[in-house]
Here is the input.
Amino acid sequence: MDASVVTIRRATADDAAAIARVRVESWRTTYRGMIPKTYLDGMSVESSAALWTKVLTAAPATISVFVAEDADGVLGFASGNRLAVPKLGFDSELSAIYLRPEFQRNGIGRRLYDAVAGAQRGHGANGMIVWVIAANKGARAFYEALGAGLLVEQAFEWDGLDLVEAGYGWHWNAGHGVEAASAG
Ligand SMILES: CC(C)(COP(=O)(O)OP(=O)(O)OC[C@H]1O[C@@H](n2cnc3c(N)ncnc32)[C@H](O)[C@@H]1OP(=O)(O)O)[C@@H](O)C(=O)NCCC(=O)NCCS
Here is the structure.
């Protein structure tokens, strides 16, 4: 694919359905074998779209949602938000980053990360944390390639499922680029 024809822009409420379609498709391929098939099969684009409509219409200005699109439409998205109560010292969070499978590994995820990180830094965030299912080796390699430091691995329960998650973080120095978080 030609990644140079892909543009990154802020999402609007009109993108809610497309974001939901990307999210459901990417979850079903990414989390196969990590999250039970019944859960993945039961995911609903409609209810996800309803949630994203709410986020994109009623959200505070410090929520940053960006989409990646080409002439055929939205093929990926990422979102971030400030944390009122910092987690492990980080006061913003990368809450989602998903691309349709055929568009992965073309540098688009890096561009989406840059957009969310730039917006959160613009809102005064000192750094950003992201949580990933521990078995999701591709996403972990992605965060590591982008300079994030591993913070913690821990069991967690989500929607009745027992999973293990890893937390990664980026510490930002005001005005001095991005520094990896230390694991210690
Ligand atoms: C994770 C994701 C957003 C990354 O976006 P992407 O566009 O595929 O990643 P990029 O092309 O920008 O990759 C940047 C670098 O990260 C690393 N990387 C990215 N994906 C990787 C993978 N699957 N395995 C190993 N390294 C990877 C590489 O170093 C890569 O550079 P390179 O391609 O020059 O070697 C995307 O692959 C995706 O949607 N994956 C499925 C959903 C997912 O897991 N989301 C995260 C949930 S926490």
